[in-house]
């Protein structure tokens, strides 16, 4: 049958292939989004759970190793039964008394050889937080802080010494030993045990937030350069704890200061 002159012949366009291509692209996009979401979730789980579990186990094991070693091999002083060099600090800024009653020379309590970099040499305990954690030399993330340890700022005083025994620790992930130091209050006790002695400090001041570049907080006589109303003006035997704040950020630093109140040989 012939088509009439001038009559249009309908043209059929095949659209099935394009529809299938679009559907396939949407499916691949959805799969990619789900895969990315799963990977992000696994990363979060690794950072917030696995690194904490792993670091806490390693830190606790190191505490046991240190204390077992100290108990098996006490210092010559402990074996001979000699009295410790100090016994109390009754007032802010005062120094431990020597057996003769005179104040020791600055740094006398830290006469032992300096620890090797990244080596654990003390155990920090904060009863209020139920915390027991090794203290290692240095503040390297990889070799100290990420292992769940507290890190000793190089160049600051040793435990019990006149000056500032300054420590850093993670607030989140990798054991997060300093996560709750914001809960510490005036009068809370903190102990630091070494092979030779146990040093007891008492919390005195808390600086809720300061700049990461506020180096005044770890000086021998600690005082904030950003907030000068926080800190001290006289020499003493201080302990400083530093960590990041707010939680899950590194924008600012939270500072806790404590003063030495007593020392004793052996276990604390």
Structure description:
It is built from two helices and eight strands; from the N terminus they run ααββββββββ. The chain is α+β, with helices and mostly antiparallel strands. Strands 1-2-3-4-7-8-6-5 form an eight-stranded mixed barrel. A hairpin with a 4-residue loop joins β1 (120-126) and β2 (131-137). It starts with 15 loop residues before the first helix and ends with a strand.
Write a concise keyword list for the protein shown above.
single chain, 268 residues, alpha+beta, Sortase, Chain: A, eight-stranded mixed β-barrel, 2 helices, 23% helix, elongated
List the helices and strands and how they pair.
Elements: H1 16-72, H2 76-80, E1 120-126, E2 131-137, E3 150-152, E4 163-168, E5 189-193, E6 197-210, E7 237-245, E8 252-265
Parallel strand pairs: 2-3, 4-7
Antiparallel strand pairs: 1-2, 1-5, 3-4, 5-6, 6-8, 7-8
| CATH architecture classification | Beta Barrel
Superfamily at the CATH H level? Sortase
Summarize the helix and strand pattern as letters: HHEEEEEEEE
CATH class: Mainly Beta
Q: What is the number of E strands?
A: 8
Number of domains: 1
Describe the sheet with the most strands: 8 strands, mixed, barrel
> What is CATH's topology name?
Sortase, Chain: A
How far the N terminus sits from the C terminus, by CA atoms, comes to 110 Å
Sum up the overall morphology in one term: elongated
Can you give the mean pLDDT? 81
Widest sheet: strand ordering: 1-2-3-4-7-8-6-5
Low-confidence stretches: 78-111
* Beta-strand fraction estimate: 15-25%
Residues in helices, as a percent range: 10-25%
CA-atom Rg in angstroms: 30 Å
């Amino acid at each position: 049958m012939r088509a009439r002159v001038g009559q249009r012949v309908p043209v059929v366009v095949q659209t099935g292939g394009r529809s299938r291509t679009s559907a396939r692209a949407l499916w691949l996009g959805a799969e990619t989004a789900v895969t990315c979401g799963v990977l992000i979730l696994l990363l979060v789980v690794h950072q917030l759970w696995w690194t904490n579990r792993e670091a806490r186990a390693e830190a606790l094991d190191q505490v046991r190793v240190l204390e077992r070693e100290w108990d098996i091999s006490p210092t010559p002083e402990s074996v001979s039964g000699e009295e410790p060099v100090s016994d109390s600090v009754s007032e802010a800024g005062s120094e431990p008394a020597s057996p003769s009653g005179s104040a020791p020379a600055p740094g006398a309590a830290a006469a032992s050889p300096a620890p090797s970099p990244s080596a654990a040499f003390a155990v920090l305990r904060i009863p209020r937080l139920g915390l027991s954690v090794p203290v290692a030399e240095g503040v390297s993330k990889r070799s100290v802080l990420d292992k769940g340890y507290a890190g000793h700022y190089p160049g600051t005083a040793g435990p019990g010494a006149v000056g500032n025994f300054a420590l850093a620790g993670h607030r989140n992930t990798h054991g997060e030993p300093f996560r709750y130091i914001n809960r510490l209050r005036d009068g809370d006790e903190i102990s630091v045990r070494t092979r030779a002695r146990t040093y007891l400090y008492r919390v005195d001041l808390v600086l809720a937030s300061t700049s990461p570049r506020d180096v005044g907080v770890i000086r021998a006589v600690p005082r904030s350069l950003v907030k000068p109303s926080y800190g001290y003006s006289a020499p003493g035997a201080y302990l400083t704890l530093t960590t990041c704040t707010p939680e899950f950020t590194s924008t600012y630093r939270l500072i806790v200061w404590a003063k030495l109140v007593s020392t004793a040989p052996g276990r604390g």
